[in-house]
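Anyone able to model this chain together with NAP?
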Amino acid sequence: MDMVPPKSSDRSYRAYGVHPVRDALDEQGDNLQKTSVSQEDRNETPNATTKNSTALATVSQLQELLELATGLLLPYAFQPLTAIETYLPGLASMWPFNISSSFNPSKDIHDLSGKVILVTGGNNGLGKETILQLAKHNPHKIFMASRTESKARDAIASIKSQTSQNVDIEFLQLDLASLPSIKKAADQVAAHTDRLDILILNAGIMAVPSAKTAAGQEIQLGTNHVGHFLLTKLLLPTLDNTAKKYNPDVRIISLSSAAWQMAPNIDTIVSTNKLIAQKPWTCYGASKAANIMFAAELARRYPQFTSASLHPGLIKTDLYTPNLEVNPIVRYGSLLMGGLMFQTIEAGALNQLWLAAGARKDEIKNGQFYTPVAKVHSNKWATNTKDGKRLWEWTEQELKNAGY
Ligand SMILES: NC(=O)c1ccc[n+]([C@@H]2O[C@H](COP(=O)([O-])OP(=O)(O)OC[C@H]3O[C@@H](n4cnc5c(N)ncnc54)[C@H](OP(=O)(O)O)[C@@H]3O)[C@@H](O)[C@H]2O)c1
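re: yes, here you go
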């Protein structure tokens, strides 16, 4: 099978700066790209082969959607109410017996005077909304850690225009797929502050095509987990100094997802060769299970901090763009069902805002996984100490191999 170069319109390659590593893309992407290239480059009307490819692509896309739906919904076959609470918290909140939190960040987050905050992926979506809400409560400083500087500058201007406080928001260049970039960002933090009260590990990519980071990990696990692991590790001295010198209530909040349900077993998660052979959604599930394991293991190893992971709900953000672009079935499905399925970005940020600054320290169960809003859920990846230790040790070894 020939390798077809990615189309310039494919945001997954362009924006993520990744390199395909398998000698063939998964069937779906391959068929789609072959179809596009043959039509554009030869300026011909589609021939029979192209039509076949399109049909095959459609079948494969349908299959992908079915796998996604069953992967996410089947585990809740006997708990339909939990499924609705997890995926449609907006609908669940309308029930008469609703017990969902009435958390309101404007009035339920107390004064953050003196506190220093860092949010990864702060230039967009849930991260940007999180910074906006925290900025309204007078923190000393917020680091907006972001990959795309222009988006960060726009986001900072937009947040400042919506807050009355003259809050100090510093742009921090961070590419989680690049270990040198993470080291540089951590050095910048250490040079500018000896205090960090709230670290929100929010940035993420979802279901992008198969690739590896420069350090050799599968791209989604590498970005969503390994990158955040190194950032946290490098910030530990500042976090520890904060707990000892300024404020015993230091929090590290990890954005996971209900997609942890789609993760493969731990043997596959910690084997790059096995993981990279999986489909993009499985790799995303692996990275989100890793976020849960990381938060739990961090709480076991560093009990002086409060560490938790969470699912934010289903929120229509740019996270879905790569998938919407390549899979028309997902695109049309979301157009038809989006209004019912997706919540607003404001609602989507509530769970992380509650964990980071709304809840009292003694209200949070250290190391646990939360669904929207403020609901602790027992999770096998959080409670399995053996797997948590294995992932931690594997990640440390990967970083050591890369010189970190
Ligand atoms: N939206 C949902 O329904 C949903 C559901 C479950 C979980 N989540 C989780 O929520 C988190 C936030 O996602 P979102 O929905 O707000 O998506 P989003 O709007 O696409 O934001 C993702 C953020 O991550 C940043 N990012 C991506 N790759 C990066 C890299 N290599 N280095 C540094 N930053 C990078 C992006 O920066 P650039 O814009 O500069 O690329 C962007 O700021 C993710 O961890 C996601 O897994 C979301």
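Residues 15, 120-121, 123-127, 146-148, 151, 174-177, 202-206, 223, 255, 257, 311-312, 314-315, 317-319 surround NAP (CB under 6 Å).
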